[in-house]
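Same chain as my last thread, 199 residues:
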Amino acid sequence: MTVKKILSLFVLIFFSASGIVFSDEKVELTSLGNKDSKVIIKVFSSLTCPHCANFHKKIFKKLKQDFIDTNIVRYEHHGFPLDLAALNGEKILNCVQNGKKRIELLNEIYDKQDDWASGSDINNINSNLSKIAKKHGLNNDRINNCLKDENIENEILNERIMAQKKYSIESTPTIFINEKKYDGKHSYNDFKKIIEKIL
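reply #2:
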């Protein structure tokens, strides 16, 4: 999913017009694995991006089993929302305090992307997201508060802007392995070979 045209519309127009002031505050990183792992994988993705969901389902889950759970690799999800639905998904994701439960929610958000992201309007999409979030310890009040929380929204958007400036992201998912951009095929075998070369 390319972002060049969306970037100007989504960031420069919508967010500038909204009067958002970006700060140095950071959202809690959605991650899994040891911070001292030899290999750190950063995935910049939008929760509504089909390619991102495909990567997560086909590569992340095998990666977790083979490398993350054994503390060889650290995985980091960096939210890069391309639309309002993805932004709201990130807000809800950031409302889960427990890191393991947050990853579990991320898994289901990607697994059920076709269901929740195909709502007729943003209210319908939010309702679909809420149904998923309730399975992971969030109630209606917490979900609604998260969706309305401007601080969380500002932090997510700030992270997105900073990522765009630092990494020149042109599509999602954009993946970095130890700060080097991965341009290979989105197949687990190819991905695994890169990791094994580092190890």
